[in-house]
Design brief:
By secondary structure, the chain is of the alpha+beta class. The protein has a domain of 70 residues: SUI1-like domain (Translation Initiation Factor Eif1). 39% of the residues lie in helices and 20% in strands.
Length: 103
Amino acid sequence: MGKKNWIEFDNQENKFEVTSKKENLNEGSKINISKQKKGKKGKTITLIRGLGITDDMLLKELLKKIKVFCGTGGTLIDRNIQLQGDMVSKSIEFLRKEGFHNL
């Protein structure tokens, strides 16, 4: 198959900007990770608050990575991450690997 409509992009500049933004944001407030029974039939969720990230794209990227790492579903509500199930220990491990040390 030929590369008829193939276009290659260089995203190295964008990756540098994202990492530099992330490094500046990690030193902010205290991150609160808790589990709650909420929703239909008292299902357990893990709530991550206080990440200090204001950029929606960075939050969505972090949500996607943590969902893959924990193997569960999740959503963003009011700049807080909600994960399905009791994922407190896995989320702490993931956030430490990502460089968030103020847990």
